[in-house]
Amino acid sequence: MPVTDVHSDPEDLTVVVTADLAAPVERVWRAYTDPRQLERFWGPPGWPATFTEFDFTVGGRALYSMTGPHGETSSAAWEFTAIDEPHGFTVIDAFVGADGVPVDGGQSRMEFAFEASASGTKMTATSYFATHESLEMVLEMGMVEGLRSAMGQLDAVLQDLREYAQGKGTRVELLDDTHVRITRLVDGPRELVWRAYNEPDLMRQWLLGPDGWEMTDVELASAAGDSYHYRWAPIGDTGGEPFGFEGEAVVLDAPRRSVTTERMQGTDGPETINDLSLYEEDGATLVTTLVEYPDLATRDLILATGMVDGMEASYARLERELLTV
Questions:
Q1: Are residues 152 and 290 in the same domain?
Q2: pLDDT in tens, 239-281
Q3: Are the CB atoms for 142 and 45 separated by under 8 Å?
Q4: pLDDT tens string 54-113
Q5: For residue 22, which of 46, 1, 5, 40 has the smallest C-alpha distance?
Q6: Whether 247 contacts 264, CB under 8 Å
Q7: What is the pTM of this model?
Q8: Does residue 114 sit in the same domain as residue 170?
Q9: For residue 229, what are the β-bridge partners?
Q10: Are 105 and 50 found together in one domain?
Q11: Are 198 and 291 part of one and the same domain?
């Protein structure tokens, strides 16, 4: 985790974030000034940012929105007031409405500073608020926790994607009692990986878990709010009982992200929220699934089923059967 300190000062009306990043200043600068790279970490897990404008000039503006795992949205804008490449830049950060116009409350001046350190780069981000009320509002909204978790994603952004993930299989991170992040690099383009997740004929070829199973039924959602289901059965006398999952699509943002609810067919739960995102670099795609469980016991129970091993078998089959043809 690159964040070393997050400090709020009610007297100075500031929030100061300090991070120790294992990359040179020029590389960190690119991560903060390229909107496609910013989208990978500007927003905590489950709330990725999408930048729709990015005019990186003094007086220019960046506009972004974040969509949560339940379909909630929040939008904000930066106005660039100073740029000193590659040492730092300053923005006026403000919440905006659907029309892009700033709304009252929560506005701040943010100063980003990058300086060389023994390990790479020391990053300091200082937010200045005009009133106690605006500072308290963002603190109550979870600004400190959100900054820590968002910045925790920077390691993956600053490294070459293949260096970061290739050959490391399916990896599991326990983020807290109810959230798990699962990542796997697959050697193929994002468009094809998205299709593999969203075309029934392709799904039947790879999303099977361990050998000896087949997908017998699949119906996919085509828009947010639609229902979906799929079902597997053992082949021949290999053992096991047929089972399936069902749920609803919450977010569908092809070919980047999908969020769905999921529960075992024929039951009332427990229900999870599965947040799938795809990021491509140099012809490889990082598949990230953020799973939200209702409680710790459910999290541990589901992980103990061998779910991750089944996912790794499916990803290996995806590379072998679809991404090499």
A1: no
A2: 788 999 999 999 999 999 999 999 999 888 789 999 999 999 9
A3: no
A4: 999 999 999 999 999 888 998 999 999 999 999 999 999 998 887 778 887 668 999 999
A5: 1
A6: no
A7: 0.85
A8: no
A9: 219, 246
A10: yes
A11: yes
